[in-house]
Amino acid sequence: MKTSMTREQAWDLLTKYNKDEFHLKHAQVVEAVMRYWAEDMGYDEAEVDFWGIVGLLHDLDFEMYPDEHCVKSQEIMREAGVDEEIIHATACHGYGLTVDIKPEHPMEKVLFAVDELTGLIGAVAIMRPSKSMMDLEVKSVKKKFKTPSFAAGCSREVITKGVEMMGATLEDVIQKTILALRQLEQEKGIV
């Protein structure tokens, strides 16, 4: 999977529909995690860029159209001339929630799992004295994963379903996502 869209074009589209710092940061976090996963899975540079753009744009419509999430984004992206592969990939992270587009490609399955997981991991990290990913361990995240009232907006059901789609273990997905977030913190200072 490759795209003719540049990261700059994706950022311009994202910021046209998203102004809130939280949403822009989340987009960058998921972008970085998706890039990490693509590299880890052995994809080439063009595909890594594709995965990153999908991560960056996955919640394009959420800030302005939360009730039409993953539906309105398809319309917005088509009007902007975005590749159908990106439209499909971003929309399918709402599978079973707002759309009936099932994640098929490994990248789509990763997005489905890590979108919610990044929120949970981020919440665990900011509760720690260091407020950092650098000393965060899988066991700390798993403990909070089992506490439904902690970061209640992060769906454990979606994370679990995504991990199952990936054919992975929760521990492995948490570990790799922590490693991706450590890299992001080191490179850009984003926690």
Structural account:
The protein has one domain: Hypothetical protein af1432. The protein has helices at 7-17, 21-40, 45-57, 72-79, 84-91, 106-127, 138-145, 156-166, 170-188. By secondary structure, the protein is mainly α. The chain is built from 9 helices and no strands. The model has no long low-confidence stretch (mean pLDDT 96). The relative contact order is 0.14.
What attributes characterize this protein structure?
mainly alpha, 191 residues, Hypothetical protein af1432, single chain
Give a quick rundown of the structure.
This protein is mostly helical and 191 residues long.
Count helical runs.
Answer: 9
Structural class from helices and strands? mainly alpha
Distance between the termini: 29 Å
Sheet with most strands: none
CATH topology: Hypothetical protein af1432
Beta-strand content estimate: under 5%
Q: Which ranges are low-confidence, i.e. pLDDT below 50, for 5 or more consecutive residues?
A: none
Number of domains: 1
Q: Could you report the average pLDDT, rounded to the nearest whole number?
A: 96
Q: Give helix and strand order, one letter per element, not per position.
A: HHHHHHHHH
Count of DSSP strands: 0
CATH class: Mainly Alpha
- CATH architectural designation: Orthogonal Bundle
Global geometry: globular
Helix content: 55-70%
Q: What's the alpha carbon Rg, rounded to whole Å?
A: 15 Å
